[in-house]
Amino acid sequence: MKTFAKSFGIHPLTAEDIRMQEAREKVELFRSYYFVSFHTFENDKESEDYLEPINVYIVVFREGILTFHFSPITHGANVRRRVRQLRDYVDVSADWLCYALIDDITDGFAPVITGIEYEADSIEDSVFVARQTDFKTMLQRIMEARRKVMTLMRLLSGKADVIKMFAKRCQDEAIQQDLSTTTAPVNARPRANIALYLGDIQDHVVTMFQNLLAYEKIFSRSHANYLAQLQVESFNSNTKISEMFSKVTLIGTMLVPLNLITGLFGMNVKVPGGGVENLGWFFGIVGVIIVSIAGSFLFAQWWLKKLGNEEDDMPVMSSRRSIRSLGLRRGRDRAKSILSFPNKYE
């Protein structure tokens, strides 16, 4: 970096920003060049650093540009291909190359945002039809989509200000050209004809940022709706389980006395009817069991019906109160006049 700084006359502050990989996006003017710091991101979906920011530093001279980055990017190749296609129609200057590089970086966000748009539509359509077994998968989809949105919003948040500052430098150049055409500028400034291109980039950045805000609201609403749906399904499942356990409890309550009867007659001692040769005692025991089951069932129905009637007959407390309930007293307890008090001077 020292060799580059010495060879091209790069200011030590610029060299330090590049060497220390300054993360802040900015535009700075110097005597023989201006310095642009801009962020792109890793667009390889198979990479572990997908959507991680990559710092791109552009040093723009009057006759050319220098770009510095510490990760492989494709923007330089895209700009060279664009130059080959448009060099017969466009005045390819150093300022135009800087604009083309910034424009290509900005356009790199469009495919990712389009994918997020499709994902938002898919999640919003499937959030109410997802089964309970898809709980983990659906939540992972929503959280991954929200993570992408927040990452892109963080990458786009400072670009509008940088481009606005860049356009302002171009306007200052135009004003300076109108005021004086003979005096050389103190600092190198971008040419005024680039301001129109920068306005187009700024519109794209603002539009993409607004779209990301809308997608974040969609994902947030889908997240809340899906959690509410899971709560309803969990409540219904708990209700069904409670009903099943109540039935099992009722059956168990009916079978406990029957176990007592069979246990008493199944003891290894002398019991009534043990020496009888006919089946009278057997059918008698079976009859008692059947009567016990029927009696328990009828008692349970009567008890449940009684509880239901008591709940229906409970009085409803009215929000109004009668005048008598306000604590006013009648007769001799009401307020007395002054004449009714005894006079000690009489």
TrEMBL record:
It is a multi-pass membrane protein. It is found in: Membrane. Keywords: Membrane, Transmembrane, Transmembrane helix. It comes from Spathaspora passalidarum (strain NRRL Y-27907 / 11-Y1). SUPFAM superfamilies: CorA soluble domain-like, Magnesium transport protein CorA, transmembrane region. One of its GO terms (biological process) is intracellular magnesium ion homeostasis. The chain crosses the membrane at residues 248-267, 279-304. This is Uncharacterized protein. It holds the Pfam family CorA. It comes from the Eukaryota. GO terms for molecular function: magnesium ion transmembrane transporter activity. GO terms for cellular component: plasma membrane. Belongs to the CorA metal ion transporter (MIT) (TC 1.A.35) family. InterPro entries: Alr1-like (IPR044089), CorA_cytoplasmic_dom (IPR045861), CorA_TM1_TM2 (IPR045863), MgTranspt_CorA/ZnTranspt_ZntB (IPR002523).
